[in-house]
Specification:
Radius of gyration: 20 Å
Distance between the termini: 27 Å
Number of strands: 0
Strand content: under 5%
Organism: Blautia faecis
Largest sheet: none
Keywords: Coiled coil
Shape: globular
Protein name: Phage transcriptional regulator, ArpU family
Structural class: mainly alpha
Number of helices: 7
């Protein structure tokens, strides 16, 4: 499902929730989503760093990439700790689920935020979704925004993101109206 398809599919829920879309509710979610997105950014950076380290280790030890090493382990190493491997896979699926939910909320910001949806999306992506941490100044320069405009848009974008995340995306996931694009595993 593309971003646009998801946005169209969510339009009805957004219009039904429009009565609850108040400044007070957006302020309520602002601090929560700000903390969540800072942790989300750290999670992305940490996982990218771990993947880069594993890739480098595979190159150094066997002079092959990580995909080859995993394929080799799957075919020839019967000593793999399946319990630990299942736990790690479940952690990866949880991280993927959070990434999917944040991406869906950002899609709603992009398509349903009045006037500045695309700009808010760009600010959120620059601040929280990169695989390398950028300073606010670098993001401002990249987007061509003044300091005051950048911080005003960042706050507004986080307020909308919080609203869409907690009012639309989380209930969709709880009610399973939206099927995630990853396979479910058994515990």
């Amino acid at each position: 499902m593309t971003e646009r398809d998801y946005a169209i599919r969510s339009f009805k829920e957004i219009t039904l929730n429009a009565a609850r879309h108040t400044e007070e509710r957006m302020d309520l979610y602002y601090e929560e989503i700000k903390a969540l997105m800072n942790n989300y950014q750290d999670l992305i950076l940490e996982n990218q760093m771990v993947l880069d380290e594993l890739e480098q280790e595979c190159q150094e030890k066997i002079n092959e990439n990580m995909a080859y090493a995993l394929q080799y382990m799957d075919a020839y190493d019967y000593r793999i700790n399946l319990g630990k491997l299942k736990k790690e896979v479940n952690n990866i699926i949880l991280i993927y689920g959070l990434c999917d939910m944040v991406n869906r909320a950002m899609t709603l910001v992009k398509y349903f935020t009045p006037n500045f949806g695309t700009e808010y999306y760009d600010v959120l992506y620059g601040c929280f979704c990169r695989h390398r941490k950028m300073t606010d100044m670098e993001i401002m320069l990249e987007l061509g925004l003044s300091r005051a405009s950048f911080y005003r848009k960042k706050k507004a974008a986080l307020r909308y993101l919080g609203y869409y995340f907690f009012e639309i995306v989380v209930p969709q996931s709880a009610n399973k109206r939206y099927k995630p694009s990853f396979p479910e595993t058994e515990e």
